[in-house]
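Q: Vacuolar calcium ion transporter, please. Structure only.
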Amino acid sequence: MGLFNRRAKQPGPDGSASNGSREKANGSSSATPSTGTTALPQYNHNGHEVTRRIQPDGESGRRGINPGQFLQIIWRSSCSVSSWVNILWPFVPAAIALHFIHGDHHLWTFAINYIAMVPAANLLGFAGQEFARKMPKVAGIIIETTLGSVVEIVLFMVLIAKDNGTGQAGHGSKIAVIQAAILGSILTNLLLCLGCCFLAGGIKHKKQRFHPIISEVGSGLILVAGFALLIPSAFFSSLIGSTVTEGEGYTETKLRSDTVNISHGVSIILMVAFLIFLLYNCVSHDNIFAEVLEADEEADRDRHRDLRKAKLTMTECAVAILIALTFISLIAVFLVEEIEFVVEHGVPDNFLGLILVPLVEKAAEHLTAIDEAYDNQINFALYHCLGPSIQTALFNAPLVVIVGWGLSKPMDLNFEIFQVVLLVLAILVVGNFLRDGSSDYLEGSLLVLVYIIIAVTAWFYPNSELTTSNGRPSTETGTEGTEALLQAAKMLMS
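A: Structure for Vacuolar calcium ion transporter:
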């Protein structure tokens, strides 16, 4: 989640605003830039007249939609790395066409749609960034945050809608994939994305320092969210060994029902926490974040080129968002329909949820964060890594639980003990690296290597219908699971 607190920039000493004013369509020499206080109208850094309710940094100087410029700006995207993703756009129509072609090509359909999701998500991220530039600070933050997680939310909604509702592992159940994808999304941001940012920034700048307000708030919220996500699993694991199959006593059915109810309550509380987090960033402490991130913008090596780039109009932003959402929704449906066949052909559901799904849903955002770190905007990059993790834990995961509640699907936060331990260890590792307020390529390399270790382990982890810590183990197994979760909780609290 990025916080783009933009202010009107005054014309620089090189007269760039004056030169830009001559680029206006009417070419009037009387349209001189304002120096900032009383003269109207005002002009931004490119000499474009600032439209009412449009922030100067987002002013395009145009109205409506121009197809040629629209396609050119979209192709250029937010950065060089992100623009390379647009080479994958031919996969989008191919993915849609392949879905409607009859035949036994399920793996090909999954693979093509998987690749096609990347440019569609990249377009949504870029359009959301352009739209946020034009909006007031609070509205821009909320809109950009929401759009940045739309791919993940759409995938979660499609998965829960297509779940068979039995709560039993096996064919037709999507809950195990959703749970793995929730934690996988957090792990991908904390380990892979943050590691790549530290690596790219460290290679270029040797050592980068970030502001404590970014790392402390982010790591603190991740710690609390991880603890909250652990509670339903701890409750289930501590009692499963003492339940009875039927008759008098505390039955497994009652335990599962209570676990689902606890998950509903925890989800509501986490969503309240997310609202408080937004208020903290957008209202009460917005000036602190504004100063930190504005200083980061000034440190951007490419800032002068970024300011001079052509911008999308408000209409073009809306059109681009609608186009991206349409493609993302279609591709998400096609992907989910092929999950059963992919799992049956040897791809473990834990690997699918922990690794494959988060990689494709976050690819575009990760590229942007890595580019920011390379350009010495380490605070922006750090927020683009911690922010989505916070939103997944405090909003996206609770949202899918609440939606499952409304659809009478037994979606809960009772994760596999293996997954919970991975989350706890990732939070501890990242928190330790953020503690000193600086980063280098060594820390980045270690984070990436830890993620690779998790990916290798997830590949060999058996599917939930074969063995699971969420099933009905023996008393001894249940005790071991409880001890593992207690140990994880102790590590979080230490």
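A: Brief note, in case it's useful. The chain has 19 helices and two strands.
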